[in-house]
Write a structure and sequence with these properties.
Layout (H helix, E strand, L loop, with lengths): L2 E4 L4 H9 L3 E4 L6 H10 L4 H19 L5 E10 L2 E3 L5 H11 L3 E12 L2 E14 L4 H9 L3 H6 L13 E5 L2 H4 L4 H10 L2
Parallel strand pairs: 1-2, 1-3
Antiparallel strand pairs: 3-4, 3-5, 5-6, 6-7
Helix pairs in contact: 4-5
């Protein structure tokens, strides 16, 4: 099995799949993530549950429209001491997020879900621990000045595959998990799927 529908417009996730020999067609789910995150947080959901639920919701929504296809949904959240850090909506917000994470450790949680006929048939959640260097204000602003608007608003505030790796003194976990797609587990599942 080497074809899947990706319920996302993420170019990074698409590239990871293609680099691993999995042909994918992108069909964004158009799920309003922020509303769902707020609702789950009010219910006391953990960051792992939020990530898993969003991945499942995305996969199931697209799977309902394409019931005979395998649909992959994915979601990543940053857990900073129990606080969920969302994608920035402005450069100022991105700077505020970097200031908040500066010199601290956090977890990046990535969940994936595969659905068929509108229901989840497999899921997996992985997490990586990252420790951000203690950077001064100029270093934070200099880092942000090198990131395009598209990248800044499409992903979390750092791109581990690019300049983002220089923000950290310690990275413990799978690079693909940090980039939003724990590909090894996906490949293992697809190889077993009949």
């Amino acid at each position: 099995m080497n074809k899947i529908i990706l319920a996302s417009k993420s170019e990074v996730r698409k590239k990871i799949l293609l680099d691993n020999g999995i042909f994918c067609q992108a069909e964004p789910s158009k799920v309003d993530e922020e509303i769902i995150k707020r609702s789950l947080l009010q219910e006391g959901a953990s960051p792992e549950i939020i990530s898993k639920n969003l991945a499942e919701l995305k996969a199931n929504k697209v799977s309902n429209k394409m019931p005979e296809e395998l649909v992959l949904g994915a979601d990543s959240v940053i857990d900073l001491s129990g606080e969920i850090i969302s994608k920035p909506r402005s450069r100022q917000e991105a700077l505020d997020i970097l200031r908040k994470m500066n010199g601290k450790s956090h977890f990046l949680i990535s969940s994936v879900c595969i659905s068929k006929k509108g229901s989840m048939i497999w899921n997996y959640t992985d997490k990586a621990k990252l420790v951000m260097k203690d950077l001064n204000e100029n270093e934070l602003k200099n880092y942000l000045s090198k990131i395009s608007d598209k990248d800044l608003y499409s992903y979390n505030v750092y791109q581990i595959e690019g300049n983002g790796k220089d923000l950290f003194s310690e990275i413990n976990g799978d690079k693909n998990t940090i980039m939003g797609l724990p590909i090894t587990k996906i490949k293992n599942y697809l190889q077993e799927y009949k």
